[in-house]
């Protein structure tokens, strides 16, 4: 054609048709969506396709499905708010228009109609409440004892929630109330006793008295709390008088040591005295038995001799005389004197059997 080569092969109006351009000098129409290499995606085309798919999914079209989506979201949110979980160490109390129900929610999954109903949970395991001074320089635990001594007491209160409903609604702040009542009870009991009772082995009566006062007070408040224990953790003098107080403590320990030593000495001497007394009593009892037995034997022998004497008086009298003379003369030196012949030689027959003494 005659216009095919004009202006370097352009169109009939002089527009360059070369380089893949149209007859009006524009490039060829490319497919939407960046069909060429390295071209960015067509955002309008992506949005258009997404709208078409959404119309197919939502019943009634896109305009009618917005309300369905909103209702579904609200329903899911309401259902989430209506379901709650009570942990194993908790108990729950549901409130309907702010008024607590009588039922207690046990551990597990529960349902209530929110927002007309709400739930409050509370832990029912043993909890510890530390009260008093945490350091020697703190004055929170300073208390006055009956002997006018100032001591710094730190103790702990262990409690459980026995009535969740009363715990949540009868007292505005149960934990703070329990702390204040515990501090007041400890000050009352410490004020009745000397300071040494808190420093030494007499802490248990103090702890028992504080527990009784604390439980009675919380019961009168209707706080739904059961106090399981009170433990005195530390007792110390104020920092300003710590040195003087330590001197008093050492003097008290020395006094106790001296008393214990005296008690040991007393027990030792008392044991010895009791042993000597028991031995003397036993010796006296043995002597008594021996003397009684000897007396009974002598009486029986005398009775026997008397019986023999009544049968043969002369013979018995002579035998008694001979036996008596034998006892008298047995161990004495004897000299025989005759009225006519004077001194007679004495033959010591009882010494013949003895061995002769050797000469010097």
Describe this structure in words.
This protein has 360 residues and is an alpha+beta fold. Among the domains are: 43-122, no CATH class; 127-236, 2-Layer Sandwich (Tetrahydropterin Synthase, Chain A), CATH 3.30.479; 313-344. 49% of the residues lie in helices and 19% in strands. The chain is built from 9 helices and 11 strands. It has helices spanning 6-9, 43-57, 61-82, 164-169, 174-192, 195-199, 203-221, 242-311, 313-329, and strands at residues 83-86, 90-96, 99-105, 108-111, 117-123, 127-132, 142-144, 150-161, 225-236, 336-338, 342-344. The strands form 4 sheets. Strands 6, 7, 8 and 9 form a 4-stranded antiparallel beta sheet that branches. It starts with 5 loop residues before the first helix and ends in a 16-residue tail after the last strand. Mean pLDDT is 77; it is low at 1-37. HflC and HflK could encode or regulate a protease. It is found in: Membrane.
Helix content: 40-55%
Total helical segments? 9
* Coarse structural class: alpha+beta
**H and E string:** HHHEEEEEEEEHHHHEHHEE
Low-confidence stretches: 1-37
Overall shape: rod-shaped
CATH topology of the domain at 127-236: Tetrahydropterin Synthase, Chain A
Q: N-to-C terminal Cα separation, in Å?
A: 194 Å
The CATH class of the domain at 127-236 is identified as Alpha Beta
- Oligomeric state of the chains? single chain
Structure summary, number of beta strands: 11
Give the CATH superfamily of the domain at 127-236. Band 7 domain
CATH architectural grouping of the domain at 127-236: 2-Layer Sandwich
């Amino acid at each position: 054609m005659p216009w095919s080569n004009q202006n370097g092969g352009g169109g009939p109006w002089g527009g360059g048709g070369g380089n893949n351009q149209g007859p009006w000098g524009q490039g060829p129409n490319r497919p939407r969506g960046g069909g060429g290499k390295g071209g960015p995606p067509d955002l309008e085309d992506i949005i258009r396709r997404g709208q078409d798919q959404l119309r197919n999914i939502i019943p009634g079209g896109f305009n009618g499905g917005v309300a369905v989506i909103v209702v579904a979201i609200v329903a899911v949110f309401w259902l989430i708010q209506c379901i709650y979980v009570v942990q194993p160490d908790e108990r729950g109390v549901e409130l309907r228009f702010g008024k607590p129900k009588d039922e207690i929610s046990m551990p597990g999954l529960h349902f209530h109609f929110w927002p007309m109903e709400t739930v409050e949970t509370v832990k029912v395991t043993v909890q510890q409440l530390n009260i008093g001074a945490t350091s020697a320089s703190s004055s929170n635990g300073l208390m006055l004892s009956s002997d006018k001594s100032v001591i710094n007491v730190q103790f702990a209160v262990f409690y459980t929630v026995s009535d969740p409903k009363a715990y949540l609604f009868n007292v505005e702040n149960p934990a703070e109330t329990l702390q204040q009542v515990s501090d007041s009870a400890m000050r009352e009991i410490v004020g009745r006793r000397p300071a040494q009772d808190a420093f030494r082995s007499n802490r248990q009566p103090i702890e028992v008295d504080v527990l009784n006062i604390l439980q009675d007070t919380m019961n009168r408040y209707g706080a739904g709390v059961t106090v399981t224990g009170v433990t005195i953790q530390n007792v110390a003098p104020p920092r300003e008088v710590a040195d003087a107080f330590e001197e008093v403590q050492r003097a008290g320990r020395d006094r106790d040591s001296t008393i214990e030593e005296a008690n040991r000495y007393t027990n030792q001497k008392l044991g010895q005295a009791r042993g000597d007394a028991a031995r003397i009593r036993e010796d006296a009892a043995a002597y008594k038995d021996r003397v009684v037995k000897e007396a009974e034997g002598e009486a029986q022998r005398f009775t026997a001799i008397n019986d023999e004497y009544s049968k043969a008086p002369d013979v018995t009298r002579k035998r008694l005389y001979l036996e008596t003379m034998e006892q008298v003369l047995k161990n004495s030196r004897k000299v025989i004197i005759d009225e006519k012949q004077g001194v007679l030689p004495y033959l010591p027959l009882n010494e013949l059997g003895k061995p002769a003494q050797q000469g010097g």
